[in-house]
Amino acid sequence: MTPEEERSGDLLDVALADEIELVSDLVVAASSSPRHFTPDEVDELLGIPGDVSGTPSDVPQTPPAE
Fold first, then answer.
1. What is the pLDDT of residues 12-61, one digit of tens each?
2. I need a labelling partner for 30 at 20 to 30 A (CA). Which of 24, 41, 51, 63 fits?
3. CB within 8 A of 14, min separation 6: which ones?
4. Closest to 64 in 3D by CA, of 43, 41, 40, 38
5. Residue 39 and residue 56: Cα distance in Å, rounded?
6. What single-letter DSSP state applies at residue 49?
């Protein structure tokens, strides 16, 4: 089997590639922040809409001082 034939049989998972890109974007953002992100901030960075259940989040917007 030639290398070209091997490449044509490579598994391409578009959803996985998208997830890897999102995680890498999150890692870059986290590396430039002096603190941990809240779950709401992570959702915002990943482009996930706010709390869709209509209930307020019980996660504080500002982490406690260290």
1. 788 888 889 988 988 998 898 888 889 998 888 888 887 655 444 555 55
2. 51
3. none
4. 38
5. 13
6. -
